[in-house]
Design brief:
This protein has 618 residues and is an alpha/beta fold. 37% of the residues lie in helices and 16% in strands. It has 21 helices and 24 strands. It has a five-stranded parallel sheet with strand order 4-3-2-7-8. β16 and β17 form a beta hairpin. The radius of gyration is 27 Å and the shape is globular.
Length: 618
């Protein structure tokens, strides 16, 4: 390794390929030789090695350090492993049998299920658990019998941006005690997220994954590495959703990214949290890239230092990463071996609202009030409301008090359960916005059916730990958890009557964070004329304003307790505040919760008997 560090070509490799070469050089054996390492260096330095017939050598054997399976695709490989153990026992007895173990660590995630017949089914449901009982018992036997196998129980919530680092490590300790960068392959749909925190990862076929499990190298075609420089300050109201969509849209517009690795750098990388980076990395398939890679930087080390429970061993890993030049300062010299370079200004991100018909129509937030008024009086198109005049009001009584509605008045605001689990920053910003609104005396109007689905898992945990769950209730939102099966309940009769009567006089609206599911608020939204989709924080903002046609730049949300107008910019949480709350409160709460779930699993998983036998009884 010291000889490699002295090679000037190594320091000019993109960070993703430095990790690759480091892991490769610690796997030298009869299948992987020093010449393969030299072939990688030669390929990226522009002087590739050639075969005898003149063909460029662009494929090398490689052995990853870890495998990630999901329960269906990984089941067949583990059945093969159990069968091999049976055969070894028949041929050589206990001595041979005890040698049958995976060659690399395996993480098997049990979040997905096999049954397609019930959309709401999950291993945490009683019916589904009983259906999968035999399979679960086999996997539990695997986790207690084989070395290097970690089965993550159902309902652990570890496959999204909130908690993937609970399973991951920036480095891996080899059998010879050497520390190398973690390189992951797998056949789980979330494998790409690892690239968000500097762990090179990509998807492979089931056959390739089984080869890795049996200590055979896989053939890796060396990809072109495209450098993407991020610069500019994101807009105040820009959410991670906006960020991910604009980066993905930009990269999809590039024509030569198929089979490439996109590596991000630049001064604006510092604005991206770990969850932001994982969200962007997860979109690599959208532009057919092998991976979207964020090199490890000081923010990555700080994040994993807080999440890690390894103590001094993490500091040892940190020293090794620095030694191998794997910690980026988010710059890239002109000499670095990039095949091409791209640039994206994060300040160009447009905050948008989608809808009303169809919901795929996106309108910049700054243009939305004008767009709404144009849709009101327009006589043609699928977004036209075809009303005679843009100025009309309707007055009635609701809950014993006068209620005046006009075109654009909102009757529904809902943050649904499809958007709240995977990115803590978005939901936390929504909660902090509600807290700030309560502090200045703002609430949603009484006639507005407002709901926030907080779930009963990680989202509920970190919102409660951050102290904003109660603020959402105080602001007028009904905070629903998954134990509240509100979708089967009837909407209040008085509200239903109001919605029906109002729709006969004015164009009423609903603001949602998602248009799918079977939620009470989604049923309520169907009773309104104009249905829009926005990010969770914007849903909160529109609910406080009570209308869809507000111009947030020039019009206040309402009047505060001191009699002064309150604008959205006055109470919108700053990014620095959100990051600090995440760092000090949210991430520690997530780590504790997920670690506990991984260790014990659900009550049903814990109740499964442990089969203490060397061979599985089929």
């Amino acid at each position: 390794m010291d000889e490699l560090l002295r090679d000037e070509r190594y320091a000019l490799l993109p960070y993703c390929m430095r990790s690759f070469v480091c892991a490769m050089i610690h796997s030298l054996d009869e299948h992987i030789g020093p010449w393969d390492v030299q072939n990688v260096l030669a390929f990226y330095s522009g002087k590739p090695a050639r075969t005898r017939n003149g063909t460029i050598v662009d494929t090398v054997p490689f052995r990853p350090t870890r495998l990630v399976f999901q329960n269906f695709s990984g089941l067949t490989s583990l059945v093969d492993l159990a069968s091999a153990r049976q055969i070894a026992s028949n041929l050589g007895g206990v001595a041979w049998m005890n040698k049958v173990h995976p060659a690399v660590p395996i993480d098997l995630l049990m979040e997905q299920t096999l049954s397609p017949d019930n959309e709401a089914s999950s291993p945490s449901n009683e019916e589904e658990f009983l259906r999968c009982r035999e399979r679960f018992m086999f996997l539990k036997w695997v986790s207690t019998t084989f070395l290097n196998v970690r089965v993550v129980p159902p309902s652990s919530n570890v496959v999204h941006q909130t908690s993937l680092e609970s399973l991951s490590s920036l480095t891996c300790c080899k059998p010879d005690s050497s520390i190398v960068p973690d390189i992951v392959v797998g056949i789980d749909s979330h494998i790409a997220m690892h690239n968000g925190f500097g762990t090179l990862a990509w998807s492979v076929s089931g056959i390739e994954a089984e080869c890795v499990m049996l200590n055979l190298p896989i053939q890796f075609k060396l990809p072109d590495v495209i450098g993407c420089r991020l610069f500019g300050d994101p807009l105040l109201l820009a959410t991670p959703t906006d960020l991910v969509l604009i980066v993905t849209k930009y990269l999809r517009s590039q024509v030569n990214l198929a089979g490439c690795v996109v590596e991000f750098y630049g001064p604006s990388v510092k604005y991206l949290s770990m969850a932001d980076r994982m969200s962007i990395a997860n979109m690599a398939d959208e532009y057919m890239a092998v991976a979207s890679f964020f090199p490890m930087d000081e923010q990555t080390l700080a994040h994993f230092g807080e999440c890690s429970n390894k103590g001094s061993s993490f500091h040892d890993s940190e020293d090794v990463l620095h030694k191998y030049l794997l910690i980026s300062d988010n710059t890239a010299p002109d000499e670095m071996y990039f095949s091409d370079r791209l640039e994206l200004d994060l300040g160009s991100i447009n905050v948008t609202v989608s809808g009303p018909h169809p919901s795929c129509t996106r309108t910049p937030l700054s243009n939305f009030p004008t767009d709404f008024k144009e849709c009101l009086t327009s006589a043609e198109g699928d977004r036209a409301f075809k009303v005679d005049t843009a100025e009309k009001t309707f007055t009635t009584t609701y809950k014993g008090a006068p209620c005046t509605l006009k075109h654009g008045s909102l009757l529904v605001a809902s943050v649904t359960n499809c958007t709240n689990g995977s990115h803590p920053s978005t939901m936390l910003t929504a909660g902090l916005l509600a807290r700030n609104a309560v502090n200045v005396g703002l609430q949603v109007p009484a006639h507005l059916h407002a709901c926030v689905n907080v779930g009963n898992g990680l989202t509920y945990t970190y919102l409660k730990e951050a102290g904003v769950l109660e603020c959402l209730s105080l602001a007028g939102f009904w905070c629903k958890d998954l134990s509240s099966n509100r979708s089967k309940e009837e909407l209040p009769e008085e509200w239903t009557a109001l919605a029906q009567e109002a729709s006969e006089h004015v164009v009423t609206g609903s603001m949602l964070s998602n248009s799918r599911g079977n939620d009470c608020c989604l049923q309520a939204a169907a009773k309104t004329t104009a249905r829009y989709i926005a990010s969770p924080p914007l849903v909160i903002a529109y609910a406080l304003a009570g209308r869809a046609d507000i111009d947030f730049e020039t019009e206040p949300l309402g009047t505060g307790t001191h009699g002064r107008p309150v604008f959205l910019r006055n109470i919108w949480p700053r990014n620095a505040e959100s990051r600090e709350v995440q760092r000090s409160t949210v991430h520690p709460a997530i780590v504790r919760t997920v670690h506990q779930r991984i260790q014990s699993g659900s009550t049903r998983w814990f109740s499964l008997p442990v089969i203490v036998e060397p061979l599985f009884r089929w």
